[in-house]
Amino acid sequence: MQNTLKTLKERYEAFKAEHPKVRIREAAKQLGVSEAELVACGIGETAIRLEGDFRDMLKDVPSLGYVMALTRNDHVVHERKGVYEQVSFNNHVGLVLGDDIDLRLFMMHWAFGFAVNENERLSLQFFDKSGEAVHKIYLNEKSNREAFETLVEKYRAAAPFAPMEISPYPAPEVPQPDANIDIAGFRQAWLNMKDTHEFFGILKKYKVSRTQGLRLAPEGYAWEISSEQVKQVFHSVSKHQCPIMIFAGNRGCIQIHTGLARNIVPMHGWFNVLDPEFNLHLKDEAIASAWVVRKPTEDGIVTGIELYDAAGQNIILMFGKRKPGIPEQQLWRDIVAQEAQPLYV
Known about the structure:
The chain is an alpha+beta fold. The chain folds into two domains: 132 residues, HemS/ChuS/ChuX like domains (Heme iron utilization protein-like fold), CATH 3.40.1570; 162 residues, HemS/ChuS/ChuX like domains (Heme iron utilization protein-like fold), CATH 3.40.1570.10. Helices cover 28% and strands 32% of the residues. It is built from ten helices and 18 strands.
């Protein structure tokens, strides 16, 4: 692996010299490699390869104290500061259930890990088998650096230059034609939901893709809105101090912010929330469709806003703050009713 790394490292160094402001994820795309491979170029200098059961490693992360959790996909970056609390696993599915850092973990997709030191900014970075980042944990001035060093030594790889078997995921399946779907059955199943989590099973049962399902929803349960309307919802949430939930993630991790979104800042093609404990960076041009989606539950209707890219992949989900057993807040419903009327009538 060392000879291969040396060649890639030389290419990466030349790329950085020519494009000093390009971030590593974009650099990987332009160089035709994965982000994990570029991080691995720093082994022995800026990166330490980690090994072991990442579930055990995450159970040690609370020792780091106050940190920043970062989860992203191609179109959004979700950053939340806080402490990792109540870390638990049921086989390969995990939860972090702190008041600030709230994660759903799908460990079957976690393949590579590194401790990274970028100009004294310390982090733990995890990647799936394709070399795409699933989750990163950044230390700050309030974090416990001694605990970080202890964790890194505990999980330091014995053979840091062992080959990394990068393997792409297969392309998503093409949705079946609407004519092949039991639309009446799908709609009735939607109307019979008792919990929002049942929706994924309904899509699977009727072999319906996510955006296809929104198109075929029962009347009045899903409608398309514009990206500008989504922005108006954010501005209204900020103005009225309406607590919300924002889900963003990838195949290995979903990260949830619950609370306010105060400081809304559009900038250079990105729509941003820039609050002290929570940052969101959403790429404007990536939003191919946006929907208001209503789902029945035992606590009444739950209203969400869902954003999708051109391939039908989810970018973010947004809800009013709520917990099971508590009906949806009226303020959130009022904001959606005011700012997110159907785009097509």
